[in-house]
Amino acid sequence: MGNLMDLNERGVGGTGFARWTMMTRAAVVLALAAMCGSAAQGQMTAATHAGAADGPWWKHAVIYEIYPRSFQDSNGDGVGDLNGITQRMGYLQSLGVDAIWISPMYPSPQVDFGYDISNYVGVDPQYGTLADFDKLVAAGKEHHVRVILDMVLNHTSDKHAWFVESASSRTNPRADWYVWKDPKGFDAQGKPIPPNNWISGFGGSAWEWVPARKQFYYHEFYKQQPDLNWRNPVVEKAAFDAMRFWLDRGVAGFRLDAIPTLFEDPQMRDNPVEKPGLNAQGDPNLSDMYTSNLPEVHDVIRRMRAMADSYPGNRVLIGETYLPNIAELNKWYGGEKQDELQLPMDMQVGFTNKLDVPLLRQRIKDVETQIGKNHPLLVFDNHDNGRSWERYGDGVHNEAIARLIATLLFTSRSTALMYYGEELGMVTSTPTRKEDVQDPIGITGWPKEKGRDGERTPMQWDASVDAGFSTAAKTWLPVAADYKTVNVKVEEGEPNSLLNWHKKLIALRRDNSALRDGSMTMLDESNNSVLSFVRKGPAGSVVTVLNLTGTEQTVSLDVSGSVTTLVTDVPGLMTGVSLKKMVVPAFGSWVGAVK
Ligand code: NOJ
After folding, report:
1. What is the rounded CA–CA span in Å between residue 170 and residue 164?
2. Distance between CA atoms of 331 and 337, rounded to whole angstroms?
3. Among residues 33, 21, 64, which one has the least CA distance to residue 396?
4. What's the pLDDT at 18?
5. SS3 for 45?
């Protein structure tokens, strides 16, 4: 699987018991929360929400991914829509997010739930209309929430008019818009043999035969998602025109889907076998050396950046960049030239899937120190991976662990990308019966690969029917079982909820100059249990201490100055803290100011 990380390494859901345990602990801390809040206020600088003085907006941003089918249904059909997102702008503003990235909402047969686009310049009727989209952007402006769209450039739907025409003959005007290839030969039964061994990330051969052309076309993903031929300059022009259409409508930028896979080897050589055995889809484990991250892609990205930069307002290009190492990631920024993506996602930190201090420390150091003057983008959750609640949780301390993850995300020197429901502690609700599965990968891969439905369940707003997501008798995916206690309304009312933890940290990173713009240096690097680092700014420093183990740890940090707690879930660390000797209980988080 080239670009989806842990499809066969999903964790299983956290238990109700675990959450009950942590709620009890949260209640203990409740009385002390007000104090913590006022300490945080004391550290606030004059930095404002707009923050134009200290670089482009995206540098300090919290970007919130919305899976539109699952966020808010405004018309009672069981599927989320654009007007639903508009209705929830007040919530997004109160959380403190600067931008939302909306997964594809263009017209689509929905084979891959929108990642199979049949028209780049419209809105799928399930999600609304262009006028609804314009209203959403306008509402976003009112609430200081920018709108970023998902742009799928590697492939279209097989129902897109471009593909229908391309597939019709070898001589039509769009004959060369997709990746077509003659068969290697024919077998004894006269069946065409695919040109090479390339396999689809979603299982099976990546080649599909079209009798009308007597040729195969290449599809990195489902066969309903034929790959565009980016060696054809007319394809680039059509794609850039589509992007302009949305930039003209006021979008703040794009998240570029599967962007490393735009080009394939022109000689179409077989991908080498990487390791023995078969993957979850029953295919050989091949390297993707001839189908991903080919150097040609960078020329396209440079031209795309120039196009985006021709618009005012720092439009941002974000990459879905699952890459093998940091040197490769740096190339996606354009290295020192900084002329490619502003924010290719770092997937090395957020998807380690274990609370391994030396590993996390090293990966954070890599992205903090080995991308020159470029700016990291960290992410722990998205619509393709089981939620971090289980990927990092131990089944007992999941809520405390979720606080650790949030603290790491929001106090690091990086742009922060989060996924709807992460702020509530939404769990992964993987289907238990094949007949309930919606994601085609789960249907073809069952039971080894159960698909991605589990991390796409409806947003949990309140304890009413359908968790306040919809009024439909049946929602497109079932609401997770814990919605009566894990929802926005309940958590808004609890000062120490995970939601309020997120709000506090997001406000702090916006308003505290050290967190906003300070340097980041690891502390106590020989400690294999506690991750600690300091952010140094002109008006003081902020230190983060995270105990990533299930046992109490005592740390001694080489930082001098007077210490004030800003945010912690440890009652004993609210006041009177000394960094020379600090006792941090299992999975405890502490953030404090040092002057
Ligand atoms: C990556 C997207 O995040 C995923 O959901 C999608 O299935 C593939 N790209 C194909 O577009």
Report:
1. 12
2. 10
3. 21
4. 31
5. coil
The residue nearest atom 2 of ligand 1, judged by CA position, is 257
Of the pLDDT bands very low, low, confident and very high (cuts 50, 70, 90), residue 575 is very high
Predicted model pTM = 0.92
Chain-wide mean pLDDT for the chain? 92
- Compute the distance from residue 496 Cα to the ligand 1 centre, in Å: 35
Determine whether the shortest distance from the Cβ of 115 to ligand 1 is under 6 A.
yes
Could you count the other beta carbons within 10 Å of the beta carbon of residue 296?
Answer: 12
Into which CATH architecture does domain 37-154+237-273+286-505 fall? Answer: Alpha-Beta Barrel (3.20)
Atom of ligand 1 minimally distant from the CA of 441? 7
Is-catalytic flag, 491?
no
CATH for 518-594, options being 2.60.40.420, 3.40.50.2000, 2.102.10.10, 2.60.40.1180: 2.60.40.1180
The one catalytic residue among 65, 220, 257, 384: 257
HSE-CB for 58 with a 13 A CA cutoff = 26
Rg for the chain, CA atoms, rounded: 24
Q: Please state, in angstroms and rounded to a whole number, the distance separating the CA atoms of residues 56 and 313.
A: 8
pLDDT tens figures, 87-117 = 999 999 999 999 999 999 999 999 999 999 9
Q: Is 449 one of the catalytic residues?
A: no
What ranges in 223-356 are assigned the alpha helix state H?
233-248, 297-309, 326-333
CA distance linking residue 19 with residue 422, whole number of Å: 15
pLDDT beyond 70 at 45: no
Average pLDDT rounded to a whole number, residues 578-594:
98
Q: Indicate whether residue 177 lines ligand 1 (CB < 6 A).
A: no
Q: How far apart are the first and last CA of the chain?
A: 48
CA of 114 to the centre of ligand 1 (A): 9
pLDDT of 42 above 80? no
Whole-angstrom Cα distance, residue 26 to residue 458? Answer: 25
- pLDDT greater than 80 at residue 78: yes
Which among 449, 464, 485 is positioned nearest to 14, based on CA atoms? 485
Q: Structure tokens of 328?
A: 């490769």
pLDDT above 70 for 53:
no
Domain ranges for the chain = 37-154+237-273+286-505, 518-594
SS3 592: strand
Q: Report the side by side order of strands in the sheet with 99-102.
A: 343-344, 316-319, 253-257, 146-152, 99-102, 62-66, 415-419, 377-379
| Bridge partners (DSSP) listed for residue 418 | 64
Q: What is the mean pLDDT of residues 64-88?
A: 99
Exactly one of 98, 150, 320, 569 is catalytic; name it.
320
Label residues 354-379 b or e (16+ Cβ within 10 Å = b). Answer: ebebeebbebbbbbbeebeebbbbbb
Task: Encode pLDDT of 302-346 as tens digits.
Answer: 999 999 999 999 999 999 999 999 999 999 999 999 999 999 999
